[in-house]
């Protein structure tokens, strides 16, 4: 957005909305936090008794980022149907993880983190490789969300970049710190409802004013290439999006913590429903991008398609609606990242590596300290702006896609070899990063996952390892 362009929402209204929702999230976080037992397991995993509605909502809300509500319309506007569909395919990560989630719950009923699985299944060296990949991905994801918060709130309301970033991270940190996983899941439930309802309002209004047949006819006459479902680049981007999302979900402790926190009877259903619910978001917002394209809507900055359309349809009310959606999207992702990463560091590094004699109270305190430490580190790394947030995400995709097959094979094959897992993650990451640099960023995850799969399968077939799955319950 040009520096001299007027924001979509008056700063006074924006500040009122920020104060309103910040107070609401923090108050709810404190209240929900006090309902728990007070031990580390309750703080980190909400008592392991989350039902279907809360489990589905937190999965969907954690996967909805500021990118989902703003980049999906841009993809639809820039590349048409494939842009919209390829972004929506990221929901496959949650859906395909559903059967693995049931398996995890069965094999590790008392597990806490994804690191627990890698350490027990493949050993300490594989754990180190996995943790390096996780650290790079998590810091990259935290940075994109923090910088996205600053940039989006600045574009929408005129907030200073650093002020917007500090506000969003600060609010997410406070209620996560006090309420732990209960606060994260509870606020995610409300945030998911807000996002779904408000996006539906914009979409309904858009297609009431500009019916789909009219939009289709206009695109056929002016941009027929945007409706081509055989576009080679679109197919490649779609594959990359699906594999990238699988890597993100299969390895990241956000989703493993949801498995451990949910009741066994609802785990599979919640992941399937959460993935389907999430896929509706980029499809709805991407279709709004198609409407804007059909109308030849003038745009000073193409990633502002959604705010421009909302303001065009609803005036100041539409701008306020977009602001609430973006604020809820950012906080729902940041709280999950902070909580799950803090749990991973507290459990795998502090407890398992540094202080195995730590008490339950010390483990809980370590998790809380990790939340604050991660917030401070994220602010420090995100203070200078980067030119491209998407490049950071594509870079991490080359790494996380290499973990898909070691995780999947390790859960089902007793013959999955630890050295094959180590080489699969290392080789997949190396090839994926090479493809990122030498070919194109959006194909990195495809190459990484392909190489990892070949290494994992061939290595395990060549030298099978007889693993006893009962060992996954040891030391957890």
From TrEMBL:
Q: Name one Pfam family in it.
A: SSF
Tell me what organism the protein belongs to: Parasynechococcus marenigrum (strain WH8102)
Stretches that traverse the bilayer: 12-33, 45-64, 84-104, 125-147, 159-178, 190-210, 230-250, 271-293, 313-346, 366-383, 389-412, 445-462
Main localization is membrane
Compartments where located? Membrane
What the entry lists under InterPro entries is as follows:
DUR, Na/Glc_symporter_sf, Na/solute_symporter, Na/solute_symporter_CS
What membrane topology does the annotation report for this chain?
Answer: Multi-pass membrane protein
Q: What is this protein called?
A: Sodium:solute transporter family, possible urea transporter
Instruction: Provide this UniProt record's keywords sorted from A to Z.
Output: Membrane, Transmembrane, Transmembrane helix, Transport
* PANTHER family found in the cross-reference section: PTHR46154, UREA ACTIVE TRANSPORTER
**Similarity comment: family membership:** Belongs to the sodium:solute symporter (SSF) (TC 2.A.21) family.
